[in-house]
Each structure stands twice: as C-alpha cells, then as structure tokens.
Amino acid sequence: MSxxxxxxxxxxxxxxxxxxxxxxxxxxxxxxKSWPRKVERRYTLVPTTCFNCEAACGLVAYVDKxxxxxxxxxxxxxxxxxxxxxxxxxxxxxxxxxxxQRILYPLKxxxxxxxxxxxxxxxxxxxDTFAAKIRxxxxxxxxxxxxxxxxxxxxxGYMDRVLQSWGVDGHNSHTNVCSAAARLGYALWSGAxxxxxxxxxxxxxxxxxxxxxxxxxxxxxxxxxxxxxxKGAKLAVIDVRLSNTASMADYWLAPWPGTEAFLMLAFAxxxxxxxxxxxxxLEDWVNWRETLAALAxxxxxxxxxxxDELAKHYASFTPEAAExxxxxxxxxxxxxxxxxxxxxxxxASHVWRNAASGNLGGWQVARCLEFLCVLVGSIGTPGGTNLxxxxxxxxxxxxxxxxxxxxxxxLYPREWPLSHHELSYLLPHMIMEGRGxxxxxxxxxxxxxxxxxxxxVWEQVLRDETKIELHAALTPTWSETAQYADYVxxxxxxxxxxxxxxxxxxxxxxxSFRQPVQRVVAERAGEKIEHTHETNPGEVWEExxxxxxxxxxxxPDGSLGIRKYYESPYRAGQKITVDEYYQWIFENSxxxxxxxxxxxxxxxxxxxxxxxAFLVSTDVYEGHRKKLGDKELEGAVAxxxxxxxxxxxxxxxxxxxxxxxxxxATLSKRLELHSQTMVDxxxxxxxxxxxxxxxxxxxxxxxSKGEYALIPTFRLPTLIHTRSGNAKWxxxxxxxxxxxxxxxxxxxxxxxxxxxxxxxxxxxxxVNKAWVTEGMRPGVVACSxxxxxxxxxxxxxxxxxxxxxxxxxxxxxxxxxxxRIEDIHPxxxxxxxxxxxxxxxxxxHQNLTFxxxxxxxxxxxxxHQRVTVERAHAGDKYGDVEVDTQKSMAVYREWLAxxxxxxxxxxxxxxxxxxxxxxxxxxxxxxx
Length: 928
Ligand code: SF4
Fold this sequence. Notes:
By secondary structure, the chain is of the alpha/beta class. About 25% of the residues lie in helices and about 20% in strands. The protein contains 29 helices and 34 strands. It is globular, with a radius of gyration of 27 Å. The termini are far apart. Residues about 5-15 have low confidence and may be disordered.
C-alpha cells in the first residue's frame, strides 16, 4: 500500500487538516471574504503541477462548484517531492491565469517586426503557414533550419519526440546560460550531469548556491535541508552574499568570486593530509590506476602509491594558501574539511548556477565539489549525494522516432566539442557571422532579448527576415522577445495544459502530471471535451495538442513518415488525443502504477488525473552497486588485477565485494578522477580536478580605479526569471533590484543606500540604486537578475504590473540608450487591483550590458562581470541602460579565440560517449 493510501497517513500527517482525497469532488469551506458571516463555498479539487520553476511541485486547484472559477491553488500532499508545500510562486499561478493582460487569441504581425502592430488571426492560418514552411525545409533536406528554442521545458521529452519525428536537428535550450558548466563538471566524473543530494538524511551539507532560498528544486530541497537541520545536521554555504541560505548556515564562507574551486581543493588537501578519505570506496570505485599512471607513470601500480601521489598533486592547496587566494580564514577551511570528513557517506552537496555559472572555468567548481564526495565515499549513499540518473524517472512514450541524421552547427559549433548543451546564447552572433539561417523558429517560454547577455544583438537578428524567416513566440504573455515575433501564440499556464515531469529532488523516483484544471472539472461533470482549448480561456491552446495538429498538417497523408507518430496507439490511423498519449505511458511505462490504480478501481490515467503524482520507487541508493545479470555477463571477462569486467575489451562493470557490478556511466565504469577524454580532446591540463583562474579574479581588478567583480546571478525566492511579470502578488513582494555594496566600498565611491550608481561593463552601463550592506564581501558588488522589465509600447510588451515604459534611442551608430519615460503605475483593467498598484520601481535591466563570455570548455556563458562602479554622472537617470553593439561583437570574438578546435579523435564533432540534447544518429557525429 502506498503511503498516501494508508489511512494512518491521513491520521498522522502534519497536513491532516488538508482535505482528504475522498472529499476532493465535493469539499466545502467558509468563504474568507464573507467573514464574520459563515458562508459556505463548495469546491471540486483538481491536482496539477506548478510550472513556475523547474521543481515541478504539486498543486491542487480549488474550483468553485458554482462559478467554475479557480479560487486558490494550494499544495498537493500526494506529491512525493513537494509533500503538500509550495513557495510563493506556486499559489501565484492564480494571478497568471487571471491576468487581465494575458494574450487570449493567436496574433499575427501587421507592421514591421518590432513595431508592436498585431492583428488577430486563426489557429488554422497559423498551422497552415508553419506546416508549409517546415515541410519545405524537411523535403528540401534543410534539416537544420527548423529550430525550437525553449527556456523552461516543463515536460520530459515530449518535444524531443516531436523534433525527431520531423527528422530535424533543431532543439535549442537555455542551459548554457544556466547550468551547463556544472553539468560538465559532474558528467566528467560519472556520466550523470546533475547532483541529487539526499539532504534529509545527511549529517553535513555544503551548498554552492542560494538554493535553500531560490535555486534548483527550491521548495523540495529547502524542506529537506530543514528536516536534516532539525535532526542535528550542519550546513555550510559558500556565497559572496549573505543570502537567505547563508543566514541559516552554521558556516558562511564568502570567498573571492572565482576562487571557489581552489577552496574545494583546499578541503580536499586537508582530507587527504588527515586521511579522512574512504579508502575502500576509492579503491573500489575510482579509476586510481589510470590516475596514478598519469601522475607518476614510473611508480608501481599500488593504491598506496596512488594516494601518495594524489596528496602530492594537491599539496599546494593548503588552508594557508587558500586563505591567501580565496580570502577565507584557514581555521574555517580546516573546520569545514573536518566536518566533511566526519560526515563520511552522509555528506550532501550541491552547486547550481552560483560560482559554476559565473566564472571562466566554472565547470571546475562542480568537478572539485564532487571530488569531495568521492573522497569521503558519499556517492549515492543515504545522506550523500546521488546521481540524477538514479532519481529522475522519464517513462518512454509509444513509438519512439529514430535519432535524426543531421547536425546543426548553430547548436553545437565545432569550437566547443565538449560543451554540455547548445551554445544557445551565441545564436545571433553565429548567424551574423554567416554560419547559417533559420527558416522556422519557435521560442517557447524563452525571452532571449531580456534574459540572455547581449540582448541587442538578439534584437538585431530577430528583426532581420533574411536571418530568421518565420518566428512564432509560444507564450501566454507578452515579453521583450515576443514583440519581434511574426506570430504570438497563446499557450496555457501551468493549470491549463498537460505535461509529465520528474525531478531529482530527493531519495526517490516520482512522476508528476500537469493537467488542465478546467478540462478535468468539465469531464468530471460528464462533459465531452475533445481539445483542451475548449475549456481554456479565449483561444488558448496547450502545446501538446499544437504539436500534434502541426505534425499532422506537415505530413497529412503520411508520406513523409511523420504522421504515424501522431496516430492513436488505440485507434488505428486516427489522430492521437492527449488522453491517449498519457494513457499509453501510464499503462505501459510506469512500474507499479497500473497495479496501484487497480487497487482503487481506477485506470492508470484516472489515477493520475485524481492524484496528480505517483511515487515510482524509493530504491535509489548506490545504483553503481547493482549486480550484473547473467545475460549481461555472457561473454564477459573480469581482469583479476584491475577487477574490470569487459566484453570485447569494452568495460561493462567492475567486480566489487566479490560480485560483478554495473558501476558508472563512464568509459571505464568507474568514477573518473583522471579524465582521458579531456586529454584526448585537447585539454590535458584539466584531466584532473583543477583550479582555473576566473576572468573576474581580483588580480584583474584595480580597486583604486573603482573596479569590482559584479555578481549578477542570484535569484530571488519570489520571482521566476523572466516569467513573473504577470503575477501581481509576486511583484508586490519584490519590485526592486538594487546593487549590493559593502559599506567600505560605498564610502570609497561616496554613496549611501538609494543613491544612484553607474555600473559600467565592457559594452555599456546601467544606472541603479545602491544598497549598502555588510552582507556583501568588500570588493564585490551584486545585483539580482530578475528585475528591470521594460516595454516600448503601451499595450504590447511586458505586463504593466512589472514593466516601466522606456524609449530606445540610437545615440550614434550601434550605440543605444534605453531611458524610462514612465514608472510602473496604477492602470485600468478588469482586475480592480490594477488601480491599486502602489509600487513604482520594477528594478533595472542589467543583462543588456553584458557581453557574451563563452567558457572555452563547457560553452557556458560566464555571467560575472568586471565592472567599474561610480556615482551616477550628471544627467544619468535611474534605469538608464546604454549599450554599444559594435563592442559586443569584438568581445564575442575575443572569447571565441579561447576555444580550441582540436584535436578531434576519430574526426568526430564530439565524444560519442558524451550526452547531447536530442541526440542525433552516431553517423552525424562524424565530420565528413
Ligand atoms: S519551488 Fe518551484 S515548482 Fe515548487 S511551488 Fe515554488 S515555483 Fe512552483
């Protein structure tokens, strides 16, 4: 019996006051607004999944039985990740649904791109236009000219299937402005690209992120970090800012930005010197023979010699040296290293964005952090740091298309063969260099003009119909990017669409079903609904149905071999419905779900519609110890010395504790401390975890000239990157992003809190307010990236809850200035609250002033900036942003020159064993 069906669960759960599931069809509460009168309101409760960050927490919509309006959204206690809890952004889904400025009908541009002129069109016209354009590209073999560019996917693999069914290489993501660096650092160790810390059972946690408050898996992680602390675990946070997370920590370490990898190696040095490592784990699971051969080829291959050489290799990373380099007291470094050593296999760690996404060489921060887990043997253990491959569960759909025979060099250019994801933010720069064009471009929950660095280069390319011939923005709301699209297509919010998601939030595998609430309510009432847009407001579609309809139109007679992927697995030759798509997955691909549903007299689809989530497994620890089966071992041989199990000389596992075991998803099947891949692909100096000096290292800064490192990456717990402009409650909470400055620096500059400062990057500058605080490392300034939304037009552009109206002027060729001409102010709408808007600020946009800075190995944009900070000049106004686009291309070329084009084993574009988004055929990896 699953926990949620155990009657005791409802008796003992701290959420016992939550409506029990048998009452979800008819639940009554007193109406809060009628207080003190007792007026009963009756609801039907529908579970769905939050879409306001990547964590995919459960939500339950309270739908008024009389009006059929959603009254509120609360947590879903059935959800294994979020356990009935949400952050502020979850309930604010209601604002998004009720936003009076949301786009309700498909729009077609009626003036030049960027003119803000649109007219209503029909979905039929949209489908015909895009089907013709895409069909022509496919038929003519232009398989790299169709591109789907996504910010927040919100699903697991649906679009991969669509794009592969079309045979195009066109998936682009936002990952290289987010997490690609850390992913490379992790993948080099184990083949898995994300950590899955088991915070709840840990004894010591080390976080390089502000993620207790805001980062990846915010709510699911935060509650488990607190669970662990309540049980006596300790927490260390590395952040230049006294973040909310740091304020909860036992140790707050604020190193110089860019020295974090050095700090990790200093912890490692103490662990090695004081022999706090797990000898058996290292001997069993690390490729120590290869590492020793690289460090000291002349030495006999013994484990003692390996440890000896490893300690020598890292001997210079002493706490004293780290104190000098990082600016953290050596006593603190020793204390934290000993805590890690004492926690042993119950040491949990996590890095997301933060130092990994800020610095040149940031990928080494993750590689060095994982080194600590490896040293103390906390990989995949209870309380340790698991691999995401052990805890994320992606059930396959029916009829998987084959990988595409195509490779887009606009996605994976040759200069970055080891990049972990697409070089997405360089797309306009590469197009401007003449590397290609796009026939059909879809942006989805993606706002590159505002989110990416160098947004004005994006704007130039998005305006140019020879470079991007046809652009549809799939979005529920206007954005700085949507205003340049040819078509703006309204798609459903989190409670208006289907998706299936899983995340590595804790020691379990689960799936969560996002479903359109109004459609479920109508179906519960016995109504026959064919498409989700029938129950969504206006003509708002959901993407699942859009892609089915579009694919069908691209290949109406099935002659291109596309249509068959969109035919029902239950009704031969008929167009599949969304119900059938998920029905098949739930019936065939989710172990345990059909049985659990049957116990309740439900079909698997009915179960998911009713409960919204399913716990697939809690058996997730130490996947590398899984014994190989007889079939896998057929024809395999174990080397008596190295204990490697191989078939035709290819490792398939490792003998540990007398049994052949699966090991890790690496070429050696061991954790790769020495990476031969790095050697073979031209980066031998980084074969082992290493320290790379950042581009914002303080050696590059002259404090006497007012130079600082700017940290622009931190998230606020209440905002959603670029997507909360339509959530009035969230903007009421957070509507300004001042520049954090230490009092000593403020005195040097001559500013106090609220005084205006000018922050100058290599391509421009912005004017913002100062916030003088001791919660900031001296010599470093920081500014959150969420705020500073702008719009050029009255009604087209970003929501008025969040945006200031600006005027954009070209001051000289290529030099542009944005100046605010209206603050945020009350406005008339169907929502009475819009007349009560009291905030005026909305913050300052800084990403426009950042040049692109691609890391030469990971391809990650290195977000931190070398800036000068000074008092605002005469004539400067709050919110001013000035950018010189001619300088920005020069900086792009400077960073491009850091990348290495070779060597290229096998004349491949990329190592075959490296993951790639929407992986093409193996033949496509070859350069002919
Ligand atoms: S943590 Fe993310 S998914 Fe969870 S409620 Fe908040 S915004 Fe939604």
